[in-house]
Structure formats: structure tokens, C-alpha cells
Amino acid sequence: MTPTTDLSAATLAGADQPAKEANLALVFRQKEALLADYLAAFAVVYYRQPAERAPAQVQATLHIETADTVFPPATVTLQLADTFTLGEVAAEAASRLPMVLAGVAEELGAAITRCRLSFPAPEAQTPEQTWCVTVAFGTGLDEAPTLGFSCPGSPTAPRETVYLPAHVQAVFAQLSSNPAEPVGYVFFLAEEEVTQLRQFQTVPPQVPEGGPQQLHQLFEQTARAYPNQVALSWLGQHCTYHELNEQADQLAARLQQQGVRVGDFVGLFMAKSVELYVGMLAVLKAGAAYVPLDLSFPADRVTYILGDCGARALLTHHALPAGFDTWPGLVIDLSLPALALPPRVVPAAVGPDSIAYVIYTSGTTGLPKGVLIPHRSICHLVRAEQVLFQPTPQDRVVQGFSVAFDASLEELWLAWGAGGTLVPVPEETMKAPDALPSFLVENQVTIFSTVPTLLSLLPAGIPTLRLLILGGEVCPPELLTKWASRQCRVVNTYGPTEATVVATAADFVPGQRLTIGRPLAGYEVLLLDQLGQLVPLGAAGELCIGGAALAAGYLNRPELSAAKFNTVSELQNGFAGRLYRTGDLARFEIDGNIDFLGRIDTQVKIRGFRVELAEIESLLLQWPGIRNAAVALKEGADGVKKLIAYLILDPNQLLDEKAVRAYLRERLAPYMLPAALVPLTAFPLLTSGKVDRKALPYPVGGAQAPTRELALPRTPLESAIYVAWQKRFDTADLSITDDFFEIGGNSLLASLIISEMRQLPDFQGLSVKEMYTRRTIEALAAAVAAQAAGSSTPPTDAPAAPPLLRASYATRVATAALQLVSIAVFYAVPVLLLNLSLLYRQAIAGWSYPALLAAGAASVLLYVPLACLVVVLMKWLVIGRFQAGEYPLWGFYYFRFWVVKKLVEAAPTQLLSATPFLAVFYRLLGAKIGKNVYLGSTRLLCFDLLTIGDGASVAREAALLGYRVEHDRLIIGPITVGQNGYVGLRAIMEGDTSLGEAAELDDLSVLPAGQQVPAREGWLGSPAQRTRAVAPTPPRATRPAGAGYLVAQALALALMLLVPSGASLPILAIIYEMGERVGAEASLLAMLPLAALYVLLLMGALALTKRLVAGRQADGTLPLHSLAYVRHWVADAVLAQSLALLKSLYATIYTPYWLRLLGAKIGYRAEVSTLNHISADHLTVGAGAFLADSVSVGAPRVQHGVVSITPTVVGPRTFIGNGAVLAGGTVLGMNNLIGALSSAPLVTPPDGTSWVGSPAFLLPNRPVSTSFAPELTFAPPTHLVWARAIIEIFKIILPFTFTFITFAVLYHYCWRHLQYYPFWSSVGVGTGVLVGLIFGFSLLTALLKWVLIGRYKPSEKPLWSSFVWRNELVNSLCESYVYTYWEAPLLGTPFATWFFQLMGSHFGHSVYMDTTEITEFDLAWVADHAVLNNGATIQTHLFEDRVMKMSTLRIGRYATVGTSSVVLYDSVIGPGATLKSLSLLMKGEQLPANTRWQGIPSAFISAG
């Protein structure tokens, strides 16, 4: 446990910034440590709840919050075992907490006020039922947190949780004071709780002291007191106490004469008769112990018992059946007269500890075991029951049990201890329950002791009864209602043979809960766990009995006696001495009564699930018409075990099996449902009268559920995976050979299981992809084992590089200040140009309109080369040559790097892509680029370290940046693309990589740092791996760019520059005229309609350019440097300009119409979002298809001087996920899905299949959303179409309106300012005005977000809902205005997160952010020092099935998200973890702290 320090808010507020950051971090870490310790403490208390337990995983959910912020809930899995020490549990909890708090900034973490730790309630029927401990922090860390407890989902808190906060606090204290204490022996009960347990342990009434201490002496005492009272009434034969005592004396003397000595054992093998009871008393008088045997016992069982106890003699009153020939002992047949009158009995020298009788019970080995009952114990029972039941000489006690069952002792001595009459029931009457009531009435029975099974067969109403005693098995309270009355007391008793018949008792009161009551006088009851520790008050524990009535042990079973009869040193409740462990579960009620919960060994296990049979039986007994029920675990001929329910129905009652099953399904977990319901007329019974579960028949017939042979885990790895699958699938019907997807698994379930398993040391490197490629437990375990074996090689002895020091606080502040100044300069440049144009306005006032137009066109055209030259000049001035190496983030070298990066990004290079002019620009920046190189991408940087050989091709969106940021480090490395090499669409080459001559890095592939691709090899995937050898291409020289082509390309470039400017001329003219006529302020009111007009004009100009200049592009191939290519380039440039300038038009209801205008075939109700690239003439999109954000579709392949153009088809209702890549020629059928950041399969996939990854692999069992009606997804009604159309008009034109107002106000302000103030004053103040306007509209965007959306929360929304449209409107303002004018300059600075925080995102300090790909802002949690590299996507939503599914994602401290990687919602990147470039983190996936991952989906990597 971490010590705390008082860090008040005032102290923090007054500290300087470095100290403040350090103090916030300290407070956060201290609270994290406290939460970890409380989690460990609660986990220990929770784990200790079951009395019987095994090593287990426990899963907690943490809900953490500050005064005004609720963190996303997080789950933690901990390993627990009784042998683990507290220190080990605390250490594991501490290692888990960073994942829980991943994404939480230090300032936010320091402000944590409350945490709710919850575990599933032990007997939960629904997931909502939990045990929840609330840890509330004070205002200062010197204040100890306060604990509270609740049970969400339950109407009342269970009794065992009353003291739970105190238990947690007690364990918490011991984490530091006693860390070496094993979990199983930690004492944590509260003092008040122990006091109550001490009170419940026994009862005040005591048995009378003194009196006889031998059982036969008790009888003799009664005989002297009531000599003429009838002691035995048997079939009309009445025997008084005096007569019975005399006959017993005579037989005792005869036994002594025939060699029976003190301490001997004598068997009683007789039916009920006077001789039986005489023999019982005679054996005791002779000083021996009797061994009762039932006539139903088979001969081998009887002979075993006689041999086991070494019986001296066997008393019978009939000839022995066959099978006794081998027993050598003395057989005395009492039906034969004695040969001579024996002398008088000699008083035996026996003491209280001498054995009175031995009862044999069933043993776990299959052989019966003898329980030795001394005189002291049975005499104590007789006296205790005299106190409890108050029998009188007038009572007539029925004797129905076999004397081989210890309950018969209760019947005998209730009568004989009080002078009453014993009335034995003939065996034939006991076997015919219908005859029993009349027997009881005829014999005027007043006391009846029986078992519930027999009682359930009897009609109510025995008018002579005054006392009904139940015992021997669980008694349903419904059974007793009809027996209880004013004249008949009903008592439920409990007691094992080893505690001498009865140990506890409770009177039955209708309407009150039936328990087994309190201990009898002189008995003590404790509830302990498997290690002998007291269980919490109200918790279930093993019922352990102490006191004066315990058995002496088991005959000839010293090991068993030692195991079951323990002598314990003093426990915390004051008990010390000998006790018997019953093997029964029970709990104390609030009044001290004991609630019997069943046998521990009847809590059967079905393939890992523990099931209490009594729970199922109790529910069945509540069904009308079911008189009795018994459930047993039965094994069929196929070896499969199933739960079978056996039922006895009321007369004339039919079983409605369907209704009963439905009733059970509502109340029981699936694994507890009986496989069959079997009605019986009667249950087979043991001698004791209990149900003989072993004799219950296995059901036959065709109604059985189908079964199969299950393969169970064989290794620890298989067992761990088996447990994880079993938990998620909630079934016991699981085999290690089951296919994950065939039994109902899906992508989300795979991520959840894998992430949970990564918390175990053996599975930290397990990838979600493994679940798709190794789909059984067996195969998955083998893969993990192989991975462990492969990583067991010793590390190399290469010296480690010295750690890179972080930039100092002063350096970071200076860098941030320099960045702000640089940003001001960036904003000042357009203001400077505007003021220059205004300054010379008078000079050109007399020019003609053609001259003005020509000058405007010239300025537009000259802007590109001049701007590029300025960037080149500034690059060489600011950084000179890029140098490979590692540099501190936020250091001065980083600042110079950032300035150059911003300048290059601001250069007007987008239209230069795929032209020879881009290579010229990059050569001027220092890149070594050969001849005839095709550059389709502008994602290049670190130019001095970039080498591209002759004839190489770099496809669109490929990234050869040469840098990456990881863990506060800027890492720069060289990149080489060999001659004729090919870098595919959206492929990435990290620093320190090379692509050999004619080698190919395919689409959506990444070459990790340090990797080299040999010549003429094709590599694919993330990370890329060799897939093929590249066949040599026929020698064909690429035609160099001739003068004619270059002129045509330059003209095409000029055209595409002038088209947007031309579309804006009417708007500028209108604005100018309105300013002149109605004033500048009034003209602002026209900006909204003017924005709409500009959109229409630009759309028209681009569409006209496409049709007139580019025409319709044909499929096939064409030379790179040709006029045909220039036309193709114009077609692509039109699309590029529309995507750049009309971005707000995309992802609207109008997008399909626009794309059709450009030549694409778009089906009815298809949805197309903000694409990165499409080839319109070659694209077919089916009806109802959905293309999500950042998709690239159908880009041509340019290689070896040839442009290959092939059509792309997206079938009806097919979904293309965010960032997916469909290469030209892809054909997808109906209802396919291509996942986020994935490529399509190389061949057309079957309809209805889903694919993910690069290369793509099948995604089985994708969960399909059916939450919403088709009217909200695929088939909207007219009113929704109109509503969306209206809202999306504003989505399209509002960003343009903001832009027009911004520059109109700036224009008018600068114009007026220049009239009164100097030029540079106008530039300076105008820069401030521009920044203020952009900032103001950014604030307005944030305000609109909070008004239109509020706070984003995890939820699902259908496509045709206003929430989605409102969300898209806000995103449109962000993407088309805020990100362009406000956020773009700030990326890569400490201020980049400000706007996102304003929108509701949770960012820590010092976050490196080089992306704006965040949409549902409130759902993003990014902690301090995290890194979001260029183009990383924080994907808090997906739109599969036209349902917008949103949830949180969290990125921990110092975690890194690589270039162009995608992080899906419900995922967590742990502190210090790295998701490298072009990787996909699946929904629900978690990356453990300080690990490295790469791939689509991500896979563990050991280095790099």
C-alpha cells in the first residue's frame, strides 16, 4: 500500500508549472495506488465468500468519476488462490490499474472523487446484480477514503454484505502490515460480527447435570420411576418398563455367559420385535456396543460390517440367509430358548466414553464406515431432547425408522427417557404409506418423527399427534403447512450421525422461513470455510458441530477421523476444542437460526459449473401439482452426465412439461436446467428413509436431448482458454475441439476474450487474428505454446543504446512559444497578401475587366510555383538537411522539423500529385528521385533521406514520411525505393527501410522500420511479409515526359487551378457590389445564399470540366506520359478537387447524385461518405450499399510507365468500412462487408460474407444489428427523406458560409484600416482579426455541438434519425472549417488538443497530436504524453448495418498510435503500449501496458 501525502488544491494552485505537473502526477499515482489496494482487498473478501473454493479468476468492474466527469467503465481480471499472499494480490492489482485508468489525464486522475468497484453477485440471476464497494476520496489525501456498499440489481442487500465495507477495510490495512499472509488465512471479520457469531454459536438452556452417564442406566432409571408404565407396544403385545428391563437383564447375563465382554461389538440382525429392543438393551447392559443391521442389507454388506467391527456375536431371531457361512463369529438366535437359565447380569465396568453403539453409514469408497457413539454423547442427546421436546409418560412415540438408521435413537429415547410408550411400526405398514395414518390413529400416537419424503405421501391430519419431528433430509416448508396446528407442534431438525442424531432444531411457524434452527442445549455450531476459518456473518460456510454429543470417530478409519473430527485452537469467536465437519453448507440468519443450504458434495459440477441440486428441487416443489422432487446427476451409456429431475405428482395430476421448463428457464441459469423431467410413482429410499439418488432410473426413450462426446482441457493453457470461452458463452456444453465461430462466436466476442486473456502472463502476446486462424481451444493453446517456445531464445548481448533524455520543461515552454509565433506568421501570410492587393487597388482601378481577369488568373497560376519556391527556401534555411536519428519531442530540433513539416503541408502540392512536377519540387527539397518516377502521393517528408530509383512508382496515399513519433521521441530514418520498385496504394514505408529493385510493396501494406525487401520480391500485409517472387517484366523503356506532354499536363494543371477560382468570381462580384451599395455589414446577411450559390457553381464547373475535357474514361491501359493520361488525370483531379473543396457535400443524401453526374453508377439509397479517392467512370455501387469515411475505391495501378484502369463493383447492401481500400478491378457481391482499414479479397467473395485485414481473411459470424426497423435503416419513409434533405443543405453550405464571412470581414476590415493606419499595422491587426474570426467560428461550432448533440454517450442510432444528421452537420463544420483554418496549424503543438477538449474530448497534457480523425468527441480518452501520429484515426463509431454504434476508447500515458492506424471503439491501449503504423485495433481489444503491436488486426511484436 502506498503512503499518502497531503497535497491540497491550494498548494497545487500556487506551485509553478513543473511542480504542478509533478504534484498532479503524484496525486494521481497515489489515488491509483489506493484504488489498486482497495481492489485487491475487495477481491480477497469476494474470493473468500464461498466456503469451498478453488483457484479462480475474479473480474471486477470499476466505475470511476470526478466531481463532473464519469470515466468509461473498465474491467479487471485478477487471479486468486488461498495460497497467494496479500502482497502478491496487491501487486497484481497494481499492475492492472494502469489499464483501468488508461486514457485518464493526470489532472483528471488527481481529481478523482469516487470509484465504484463491483463484482457479480455470487448468486446473481442477471448481469445487473452486483456487489459494489464505493471508495470516496476526501478533499485531501491525508483524509482516509470512506467506503460504502450497495447491491445494484437486488431489492435488498444480502446479509453477508452487512459488514463488507469493514471487511474490505480490514484487508486493506493488512496489505501493508501483513503482506506475507496467505489469502486463505486472512482474518477480516468485524468485532461486532464476531460477537454475534459467538452468540449464535450455542444457546443458553443447559441439560440437567448429574444422573446416569450410560444409556442403559438411563433406561433403568426410567424403569425404576415408571415400572408399570408400558414401555413397548408391539402388535398388541404390551411390555412394561419393569418387564422389558428384566428381559434385558436376562439376555445380558446370557451374553456375558457366552463370552461377550466390555468393549465388544454385537450385531443386531433382526426385524422389529420385542426381541430386537431387548437385545439392544441387553448388549448395553453386558458392557458391549450394539451394531444395528437392517434385514434389507445384502449378506456381503452385513458380513463386511461384522468383520470391520470385529463383532463378538450376532443376535437374530430367525435362521440366517445364505452368504453368512464365511463369518466365524457367534450367532445367537433369540427365537430359540436358552439352554439353561443364566446367572444374573454382572454390572459392566463401562464409563461415559465407552462406545454405546455403532451406526454404519455409506462411505465415499463404496464401503460403509462405522460411526462410534459413546455413552456420553447419546446420553447428552437424550437429556437435550427432553429439554427441547418435553416428552411425558403419557406420550406414545412411533418407532418407524430402521434401527440401522440413527434417527431411531431419537424415537426410542424420546419415549424411554420420559417413561412414554414406544410404538414400533411393522415393516409392511411402513412400506404402504396409505396404511400408516390409520396405524398412527389406532395406536394413539402422539409423537411422530419421520423424513419429509415419507410425510409427503401421507394425507394431513393425525388427530392424536401433538409433536411432529422432521429430519434426515431437506424439508420443503410447503409440506408442513397442512400439519401444523395449535395442538400439533412441528419441529424441523438437523443432525448428522457423527453428532449423535440431532444437533439443531427449529419450530415450524406458517408464513415464516423454515430453517434448521439453533443448536440443542450443550451443542455448539460454527460455520467455517475449507481452511477452518470463520465465514462472515450471513455467508455460507461448512456447518461444523462441537459440544458434548460428538461421536468418538470412525471405526478403523484414523485418517478419516482426523479429517472430519478436528481439534482446533481457539478461534476468534472463542471456540476451542473438538468439532465435526459435516460437509453441509449453511448460513446464519439475522436471528441466529441456521439456514441449511445442502450438501457440499451435492453441489455437483457439470463440466466446471457448480450446481446445487436442492435449489432446483426447491423450485420444482413450488410448481402446482408436484408433490415431491429429486434431482440427480446421471451418466448415460454415452458417458455424458446430465441433470435429471424426478417428480412425484399429486393424484390425477398430469405433467405440463413445456410449462415447467419455461418456468425453470426464467429462474435458473442455462446449465442448471434439467435435461429430462421424469414422473415416478415413488422414489427409491435408503434405509434411513431418504431418497436413494443412486437408484433413481436413467430416463429412456426418444425424448432425450442429443448428446456428444466432449474433449476437456488437458493442459494449463487449454484450461485457461476453456474458462474464458465458458464464461463468455455461458454454457457447459463446450469442447476443446469446438470451432469458436460455429458455437456462436463473433468478432466482438473474440476481442473481449483475447483482451481478457492478455491479462494472464502466458497470453500477453495473443492476437485477435489467432482466433480467426486457430478457431479451437486446442489449436489456440498450441499456438500460444509455440509462441512461448519461439520466444524463449536468450537475448543478444548487443549493448543497449543510452536512453534519450526528454526535453526539459524550459525547452518545452520555449518550443511552444516559438510554435505560437510561427503559427501567427502562418496566419499573417494571407493577410499580408490581402493588404498588398488592397494597397495597389487604386493602381489597378482603371484596368479593364479582361485585364483584371488576366491578372487574377496569373496570380492564381503563379501562386503554385512561387509558394513551392518559398517552401524550398524556408526548408533549407530552417533545417538544412534532415539528419537520421532520434530527437526529443518538443525540443529545438523538433521545432525546426515541425516548421518545415508545416510549410510542406501548406504547399499547394495536391494537384501536383501524379504529375512530373511533383518530383521536381521534392528534388528541390533534397530528395534523390530518379527519372520517370511516378509520384501519386504527397505524403513524403525527410527529403534528404529519401531515395527513389528510376522508373519507380509510388501510388496514391502511400506514405514515405521517413519519421515517426514514439514515446516523446522523434525518430527519423532513411527510405530507399529501388529502381522500378512499386509502393502500393496507402502503403507505408517507415524510416530505415528499403525496397529492392523491381520489388513490390502491395496496397495497404507497411514495411516496418529496419526491414529491407530484396529485389524482385512481392510483400503484402501489415506488417508486410513475402508473398511471391515478382516476375521479370519484358524490357520496355518507359517513354520519358516529352515537351508536348509536359505542356498538356501544365495546361491541365492550370485549368484545375482556375476552375474553383472561376466559380468564385460571380460570388466575389456580388459581394463587392453589395458592399458598395448596401454596406459591408448588410452584405454579410447574404453569405448563406451566396455559399449555396458557390456550391452549385463549383459543382457545375467541375462537372463541365469532367465532361468537356476528360470525357468518359474507358477501361484498359494507357501510357503514363501521354495525352490520354492527361485526360485521365483531369478526371481524377476533378474528383480530387471536389473531395477537397466540396467535402461537406459528401456523406449526404445528395452525394449519389453528384457522383452520377461525374460518371459513377450509384444505386438507389446507396450511401457514400467522405472518400479519399474514387475513379468515377469505373465505379458501380449497388442499391443500399454503404461506403464509409476515408475509403479508397478503384485507384488505377501505375507501374512500368503504364496506367491500368479496371472497373470496380460494390454490390447491393455491401458495406465498405472506414479506411478500407478497394483496388481497381475489385468485384464485391451482395451484402458483403469489408472491415475498417482492410482490403478486399482478391477474388469475388460469396454473398453475405464479411472480410477484414490486409490481406483480407474471412470474418465468420459477424453480429448483425437488428435493433431498428427497416424504415430507419434501408427503407425510410418520405418525411424522413425530406427532413434529412433539409438538414443536410445546412451541412453543405454552413462551412462555406463561415468561410465567406471570415474573409469578407477580414477584407472589409483591412480595407478600412489601410485608409487610416500604416501598412504593417493593418497586417498585424488584420492577422489578429483573422485569428479572432476563425477562433470565434470554432467556438460557435463547439456551441452548436453542445446544443445539437449534447454529450456523446455509448449508444446506437439508426441512419435515418435526426441524431445522425445533426452529428454529420457538426462534423462537417469541423472538417471543412475548423480543422482547415484552426486545427491544421496547431497539429504537432501542445495546443492541438484544445479544440477537441472544448468539444468534450478528454486529453492530458503534452499529447502529440498529428491527426484530426476524431468524431464523437466525448468518447475519446487520451492520457498525458500519448502520441497520435499522422493520419491516425480514433474511431469512436462504426456504421455497419446502417446503425451508428458509438462507444468509448482509451489511450494511456506514453502510448503511441502509429501512422494511419485505426483504433476502434471499446478498445484500450495501455500505458506505454505502441500500436505501430497501419494497424487496426479491433472493437473491445486491449493492448497491455508497455507492449508493441502491429497488424490488421494487431498482433504482438517483440521488438522494433
Automatic annotation (TrEMBL):
Gene Ontology molecular function: phosphopantetheine binding
A Pfam family assignment: PP-binding
Any one GO biological process: secondary metabolite biosynthetic process
Keyword set, alphabetical order: Membrane, Transmembrane, Transmembrane helix
InterPro entries: AA_adenyl_dom, ACP-like_sf, AMP-bd_C, AMP-bd_C_sf, AMP-binding_CS, AMP-dep_synth/lig_dom, ANL_N_sf, Pls/PosA_C
Transmembrane segments: 816-840, 852-873, 1045-1072, 1084-1104, 1289-1309, 1329-1348
One cellular component (GO) term of this entry: cytoplasm
CDD domains: A_NRPS (cd05930)
Coiled coil ranges: none
Domain Carrier: 712-788
Superkingdom: Bacteria
NCBIfam families, per the entry: AA-adenyl-dom, NRPS_term_dom
Protein name according to UniProt: Amino acid adenylation domain-containing protein
Organism of this sequence: Hymenobacter ginkgonis
